[in-house]
Amino acid sequence: MITALDHVQLAAPRGSEERLRAYYVDVLGMTEIPKPPVLARRGGCWFRAGAVLLHIGIEEDFRAARKAHPGLRVTDIESCAARLEAGGAPVIWDHVLPGHKRFYSQDPVGNRLEFLEPAQGLLP
Length: 124
Prior knowledge:
single chain, alpha/beta, 2,3-Dihydroxybiphenyl 1,2-Dioxygenase, domain 1, 3 helices
């Protein structure tokens, strides 16, 4: 029945859209995609990088999740980490997932993000 993951939804506090755009577009290199007008009135923003769709919706009583997160596969993970650090985002390396290089970070509102790259020879 399930054929693909369509998008991941994260939450953010009201008024944080400009900080999110600066992070997801300027630091991560994603492209902002317009929300349908009926949904745009709710606030938030949507981003794309290739087939990856990330929706960020406004939550009135926002609290960033401490454990839940999207896992974002990247190429050249060291350069990705350097770009995030240069943009002021934390980078916390984790070496316990066999066959992968990975680290965790946070967006400007505290959403946890995992960045991972399979070791050479393990790419599907």
